[in-house]
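User:
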Amino acid sequence: MRSVRLVLTILFALFFVSSFLTAQEKWKLEKNAKGVKVYTRTVPGSDYREMMAVGVDDIPFEVAAEVAKDYNSYQQWYGMCKTLKLIKKSSDSNFDMYFVLDMPVVTNRDAVIRVKTNFDFKKGRGRVTMTSVDSSYKKDAGLVRMPKVKGSFTITRLGPSRVQVVYQIHADMGGNVPAWVVNTAAVKHPFDTAVGVKRQARKPVYTEQANKLHKTSYAVPR
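Assistant: Predicted structure:
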């Protein structure tokens, strides 16, 4: 029975990614390296492409969840990130963060992001959503405020020590940005983010926390 559930979980995860790739039939593979595939697609009415990074790694779901829950350390691994800090906490699963995107050549962009997290440890699925909110926080910082940011992380357990992470985001950078800067960021940001998650998950603190909370005995991922 357990093996049947595992097969169904894997099929669900594969179907989940497939639905992303075929829903509009516009996703384009931009990069495939270090176990991460980066896709982009055009969005009607927007000058900026939607981005998606898909990665599978030998990390227990519980360990990956601890990385996603540790919002105080997001800045250490989030792609092209100059600043990412907590400014308001409604609960452990609902909080606002101030984000500064480190841009080449042009003025850095910023936004206030509302983050919501949900984890189902029994089913092995987790989701982190990120949506920009209107805020006066640091609007006078001399940066360009991004009018719209919407993204998510979806974490799916594929096995006892294996997960799939899908990171998807679309943002309006605001102002005038050269095409080459946009094209570079569209690949670099999701790739660096996905690789950063994998690197962060290998820090012993997350395995130790997962073992303590779930009474498991996972080894630190290598």
